[in-house]
Amino acid sequence: MPKTTVLTVYQGRAGDHNDLAIPGAASIGRILSERLGAKPIIIGEPEPALSIDWKHELAHAMPSLRAMAAHYDSVLGKGLVPITASSRCAVSLSTLPPIARHRPDACVIWFDSHPDLNTPETTTTGYLGGLSLSGPAGLWDSGLGSGLSLSNVILVGERDIDPSEQALIDAGIVLLVSAQVGFENKLRTAIAGRPVYVHWDCDVLSPGIVPTDYQHEGGLTLSDLFNACVAMTQSEIVGFEIAEFENAWEVNGEAVSPVPLLDALQPLIENIVEGTTQN
Predict the structure, then answer these.
(1) What residues does 220 pair with on adjacent strands?
(2) I need a labelling partner for 173 at 20 to 30 A (CA). Which of 32, 65, 149, 252 fits?
(3) Model confidence pLDDT, tens digit, residues 225-270
(4) Quick one: which H or E segment has residue 237?
(5) Does the domain made of 5-274 have the CATH classification 3.40.800.10?
(6) pLDDT of 2 higher than 70
(7) What is the C-alpha separation between 138 and 150, in angstroms, rounded?
(8) Is 11 within 8 Å of 25 (Cβ atoms)?
(9) Distance between CA atoms of 177 and 23, rounded to whole angstroms?
(10) Is the pTM of this model over 0.85?
(11) Where are the domains of the chain?
């Protein structure tokens, strides 16, 4: 793997509902390590899921999240490109503020079935993951920084949208590219040649493709993901993170391989490793 790229695996708490995503991230990290020929940097240590309200989840996760934020600041400050196997979307509370500081020219492509733009005031579930993008965007103070402009955010594949989030979309404050035929062309137009940082939540996929915490009909296929990655490689990729891959369909279930998922992401990985855009 070129010295310009850093593989990171997040293993700390991040508002987990269950204990499946931490080993899921470790599984993705192992495959990426083999493909890239690099030993990953591990941030945090596995602990049992708490599945409690966002405020207490954040307090328990804060040591690992602060370590992740410091790590990203170091990586980006050296001009390196992060490839990250993350557990939950809430880890983005720590990764996106450094992206906004070091690469303010980049847009964040948020692949997810949820916009994650709720705030402590608007959340109906109290789930920390639902606040993952709103914190970096400065809609509330997570204690981990902000600075990400919503004009630099492109939502892709969201379909479980709360009223306060829909209001941001309807007002044109944040752009949504729906999971429809030819969506990758709309994504390419929305990027408009800007550098790209990619957040990938596995629940953007249709149910049954990979195990993940949420299952919502009408999502992307692995073929859709591959096509989206090809579209994004026409821009500079400044990094990406994969979240919410659970290593089994149920607790104590048989382990599921992330290889098909990573195969679909291969154009993105190759773009980063080779450091070239595709015409």
Answers:
(1) 205
(2) 65
(3) 999 999 999 999 999 999 999 999 999 999 999 999 999 999 999 9
(4) strand 237-243
(5) yes
(6) no
(7) 9
(8) yes
(9) 31
(10) yes
(11) 5-274
